[in-house]
Every structure is written in C-alpha cells, then in structure tokens.
Specification:
3 helices, 10% strand, two-stranded parallel sheet, alpha+beta, 63 residues
C-alpha cells in the first residue's frame, strides 16, 4: 500500500468511517465516484459534495 501511496484505517461504524473520509479529503480535490453501495448508503457523496471546491469524476457505463 505504501508503494501506491494508499493509506488504510478501520472504523467501527459507518458514521465514523464517513467522518474519517471527509476529514481526509483536501479542499479542491477531484474525487472519483465509484458505485459502492456502502458509500451511497452512508450518504458519503452528498456530504462530500458540500466540501469546498470538491469536484467529482463519475464513471459512465455504456450498455
């Protein structure tokens, strides 16, 4: 994980995980929005959209 500049953590609850994710998102970040049902279920994308200057890359899937 270090080689790829990835950090990991463990949270006991979805709310704690969301707090950690939001705190780790820098102002002006470009965020890749994946199809994670966990992220959707915890309201992560709505809260992340409220952060200053955050932009989203949303994948487009063709049939």
């Amino acid at each position: 994980m270090n080689r790829c500049r990835i950090e990991g953590s463990y949270a006991n609850t979805a709310e704690k995980a969301k707090e950690e994710i939001l705190a780790a998102t820098p102002v002006g970040a470009s965020v890749f929005r994946c199809g994670s049902m966990t992220a959707v279920g915890m309201g992560l994308w709505e809260d992340k959209a409220q952060l200053p200057g955050v932009g989203f890359w949303t994948p487009v899937f063709s049939k």
